[in-house]
UniProtKB/TrEMBL annotation:
UniProtKB keywords: DNA-binding, Transcription, Transcription regulation
Protein name per UniProt: BlaI/MecI/CopY family transcriptional regulator
Family: Belongs to the BlaI transcriptional regulatory family.
Organism annotation: Nonlabens ponticola
Transmembrane segments: none
UniProt key word Transcription: yes
Name of one Pfam family that matches: Penicillinase_R
Record Gene3D superfamilies: Penicillinase repressor domain (1.10.4040.10), Winged helix-like DNA-binding domain superfamily/Winged helix DNA-binding domain (1.10.10.10)
Annotated GO MF terms: DNA binding
Any GO BP annotation: negative regulation of DNA-templated transcription
């Protein structure tokens, strides 16, 4: 799966939240200062070429919708992070976040509970 730029990911987050939207609706959800219409339109076309979104025509415009789920993208991104920075070890990755104090003992306990549910 291709990696998204920060701008592409921001638009995907909005589309995952809304399920579908035209460019104007995407812009409404973006923080100030809002990007230009043409900028968002260009990014959505890039997302289409990367096979992350598709569209259907509505009047003179397009309604965009995600064809890659947030869960699938998250899984691929986490796997790439583990591979590129932690030699494929999720244990090392979790240990790193704990050492950086970005993951509390309570967070770790919650993760273990979730893992036990799936077992």
């Amino acid at each position: 799966m291709k990696t998204l730029t920060q701008a592409e990911e921001e638009i995907m987050q909005i589309l995952w939240q809304l399920n579908e939207a035209n460019v104007a609706s995407i812009i409404e959800q973006m923080p100030e200062p809002k990007p230009a219409y043409n900028t968002v339109s260009t990014i959505t076309r890039i997302l289409e070429s990367k096979k992350f979104v598709n569209y259907r025509k509505q009047g003179r415009g397009h309604i965009y919708y995600p064809i890659v789920s947030k869960k699938d993208y998250t899984r691929a991104t986490a796997g790439k992070l583990a591979s590129n920075y932690f030699k494929g070890s999720y244990k090392s990755m979790v240990s790193f976040f704990m050492q950086q104090e970005q993951l509390s003992v309570q967070d770790l306990e919650d993760i273990l509970k979730e893992m036990n549910k799936k077992s």
